[in-house]
Design goal:
Layout lengths: L2 H23 L9 E9 L5 E9 L4 H10 L1 H11 L7 E6 L2 H22 L1
Parallel strand pairs: 2-3
Antiparallel strand pairs: 1-2
Helix pairs in contact: 1-3
Length: 121
């Protein structure tokens, strides 16, 4: 693997940890409700843009929480610049990651199917 790829992966992981920390412990936006977890961060090669994938559970309104994160992007970015010592701090783009809910839905379907198969045997 090229050195620049591993560097990008390290930066992605560092940003993921720091953004998660900022959202869970420092963000004071009352519209950001529920359990918000950062599942993945993808930074572009030039470090100018970062897509932040978040999973939102137990929220009153998932779309409202995502909008609150987008509005708090400036605060999160400034705190990220203070915590991670790099020349550029990327612009953050928040996107909803519904893979956890998708997996849960598949798991429920499998649970419904599995007892039927056990009864047939």
């Amino acid at each position: 693997m090229p050195e620049s790829q591993s560097r990008l992966e390290r930066i992605n992981e560092q940003y993921k940890k720091q953004i998660s920390q900022i959202i869970n412990y420092e963000l004071k936006n009352p519209n950001a409700t529920g359990l918000i977890s950062v599942t993945k961060v993808k930074v572009t090669n030039d470090l100018k843009l970062a897509k932040v994938y978040v999973s939102i559970l137990n929220a009153k309104d998932t779309k409202q929480t995502l909008e609150a994160l987008k509005k708090s992007q400036g605060f999160i970015r400034s705190r990220l610049a203070q915590e991670v010592n790099l020349r550029n701090t990327p612009e953050l783009i928040f996107e909803l990651d519904d893979s956890i809910e998708y997996g849960e839905r598949i798991d429920n379907i499998l649970k419904k199917i599995m007892p039927k198969k056990e009864e047939e045997n």
